[in-house]
Structures are given as structure tokens and as C-alpha cells.
Amino acid sequence: MSKLLVPFNLDQLGEPREYRPPAERVIEGDVVCRNWDVDSAKDGKVRAGVFESTVGVNHSIKGETWEFCLILSGVVEITEQGQPPSTYKAGDCFIMKPGYVGTWRTIETVRKVWVMA
User: Fold this and answer.
1) pLDDT in tens, 31-65
2) pTM for this entry
3) 8 A C-beta contact, residue 83 and residue 60
4) In whole angstroms, what is the distance from residue 3 CA to residue 1 CA?
5) C-alpha 11, offset from chain centre
């Protein structure tokens, strides 16, 4: 029987997958990202985890993905193309809808919980 209640234990996430954004998306800085996949469902079409990024700026393109974010720590400034920037810090949450294009500026190393569908 599968486990249907999955705890998000932020103190025991295990080893992250570490990577850098594609060079063509980096605008400023030496951005290093870490990702912890916590769970998935519907053949991977719905996923949840924790993401962390160091200071820098990169192009953010969602494609067909819908993403809910809850900032756990740090500060980011997100600017949707053609819109004024929005700043988010610990406790703030937002949704990036399919088709979103803009910039993601990490002002202080940021950590967030994410859910993608």
C-alpha cells in the first residue's frame, strides 16, 4: 500500500540535486541552484519539492508549467515581461502561470517550497 500522507520535513530533505541555469538564461552572477524533489503524482505531471538559489539574475520561462511557490527564506525580485517588479520574502507566496516570461533576481539566497502541475 502506498503512503498517501507525505510529510514535508524541511530538516531532513536529503541530498539535493545541484545545477546551474543554462548559460543563455543567466543575466548576472554565478547562480547555483539546489533542488530537493519531495513527491510526485499523476505520472510526474504534479510534483512538489524545495528549491534554493544563490544570488544572481536569470531569465525565467515557465512554458506550459503552472507553479505555486512559498518563500521560506531569502529575498527575490520577480519581473514579468512588461510588468513592474514584485519582491517576495519569507512567508510570501505566489503563482507563476503557464506562459510566464520574465526575470528572477535573487537578492539574498532564497529557499522556496514549490508545487508544479
Assistant:
1) 999 999 999 999 989 999 999 999 999 999 999 99
2) 0.92
3) no
4) 7
5) 18
User: How far apart are the C-alpha atoms of 46 and 53, rounded to whole Å?
Assistant: 22
- Give, in order, the Cα–Cα distances in Å from 80 to each of 30, 37, 52, 98: 22, 26, 20, 12
- Are 104 and 75 within 8 A, CB to CB? no
What is the amino acid identity at position 77?
E
**CA of residue 41 relative to chain centroid, distance:** 18
Phi, psi of 30 (to 5 degrees): -110, 80
> Are the C-beta atoms of 54 and 105 separated by less than 8 Å?
no
d(CA 80, CA 101): 6
